[in-house]
Amino acid sequence: MKLAMAVLLLLFLTVLSHSEADQAFDVRQHLSTVSRYGAVKDIADNSFVPTGIPDGCTGIHLNLVARHGTRSPTKRRMRELDRLAARIQELLRDAKQHSLSSKKVPAWLWQWESPWKGKLKGGELISKGEDELYDLGIRIRERSPDLFDEEYHPDVYTIKATQVPRASASAVAFGMGLFRERGSLGPGRHRAFAVIIESCASDIMLRFYDCCVNYKDFRKNQEPAVEKLKEPIFDEIASALQKRYELNFQSQDISSLWFLCKQEASLLDTTDQACGLFSPSEVVLLEWTDDVGFFILKGYGNSLNYQMGVPLLEDILQSMEQAIKAKEENQAPGSYEKARLRFAHAETVVPFSCLLGLFLEGSEFEQIQKEEPLDLPPKPPQKRNWRGSTVAPFGGNNMLVLYSCPANSSGKYFVQVLHNEHPIPMPGCNGADFCPFEVFKERVVVPHMKHDYHALCKAKLEQPVQKPATSKLILLFRWLFSLGNDDTSQRQRVEL
Q1: Which pLDDT does position 370 carry in this prediction?
Q2: 32-72+124-215+284-481 topology per CATH
C-alpha cells in the first residue's frame, strides 16, 4: 500500500513539474525577430556585471540605432495567411472524409480565418509599436537627463529615419516621448521636431543593404539553400502534428503555422491557437531555424553582411570625435550636437551589432577581425548568444554613450555600449561595457575601416567571399538530415 502511494505521489509531482514548466514558458520570448520589445528587452546575460559609471563622468553625446516598432504583416504575408485558411479547411474536409476523430482537432481551427482577411495594405507600424518607441524615448531622457536638458534644435538632436513609413513613424513616436512636455502643442505640451529621411536609392547609412548590389546577389543565391536547411525540421514537426491532431500536415503547413503563431503572439497576444499547436521544445527549435537563417543572411554568416555597414560605423565615430572637439574647445551649449538618433530595420541593427562584435562566443571576436567564418549558432538544447528575440526584436536598439571623465587616469573619454537599454560586454574592450574611447576606436572601429562601401558593393567580388557561408550550409544540411527523430522549424524573407 505504501509503495503504491509513493508511486502515485511521484507521478503527481512529475505531472505537476511538467505543468509548471509549460506555464513558465512564454512563447512571446521565442519569436526570433518578430518578438515584441516589451517581452524580451529585459532578457540579459545575468552573469555579466556592468562596470558602472565612475563618479565625475558625465555624458556628452549619445548615438542610437533602433529598429522600428511592432508592425503588421506585409501584404504578401497576409495573402499567405489567406492561403493557410483555405489549406486548413482542406485538411478538415479530408479528415471528415476519412472518418478520422475530430476530438483531437483544436476547436479554433474549425472556424478560423486570418485576422488580416480583406486588409489591402500591410507592413505599417501598429499601436503597440508606437507605444514601444514612445516609451523608449521617455526612458532614454530619464536615463540621461544631462544630455537632453537643452532647448530642442535639429542640429543639437539629430533624428534620422529610412524612407519606409514604419521607420519614420517610429522616429515620430520616439520623438514625442523624448520631447514630451517640452512644447506648447495640445494638452500633452508636445512640440514639433524634424526627422531627416534619405531616399531609399541612396541611403548607404541606414539602408546600406538595399544599395549593395553584391549583397543582394549573395542573399538571392543563398536564400534557397537556407530554406532547404529548414525542411528536415519542418518534416519532423509535420509528422509529430499528424499524430497529435490526426490532420495531414505537410512541411509547408508548418512554415505557415509558425508564421501565424509569431503574428498572433506578437501582435495580438494570442498564444493558445497557432502557437498552442506546438510543444515548447518544438517552438524553441522553430525559433532556432529562424535564428540560423538570419545569422547566415544578415549576421556573422558572411562578412559582407556587416562590412557593408561601415558607413554607419564611420558616421558614429565622426559624431563622437565632433563631440570631443566641442568639449575640448568649450563650445557654447546649444552650438553642437548632443544626440544622433536613427530609426531603421533589422537589416540595419543586426549588421551594426556585428560590427561592434556583440553576441559572440569565446574566441569568435578574433575570428571576425580576421574575417574567418564562424560556426552556426548551436542547436537547442545547447545555449547560444545569437537569438533573434534578443539581437533584433521589434524596437531593438544599440546605444553608444560618450562620457567625459576628466579625473580618470586611463583617459578622458569613454564609450558605454547598451543593447536594448542594458550595458553589454564588448569583446574588443576586453569584455567591458565601459571602454576608453581610444581603445574603442582602435580595437572595435578601425579594423573595419579598411573596407570601402562602394568597392565592397559595386565591384564584382571574387567567388570565395561566398564559399564560407555556402560550405557551412551544406554541412548543416547534411547534419540536419542525420537527426533522426529529433524535433522542429520555419521560414522567412521580406524586409524586417
Answers
A1: 83
A2: Rossmann fold (3.40.50)
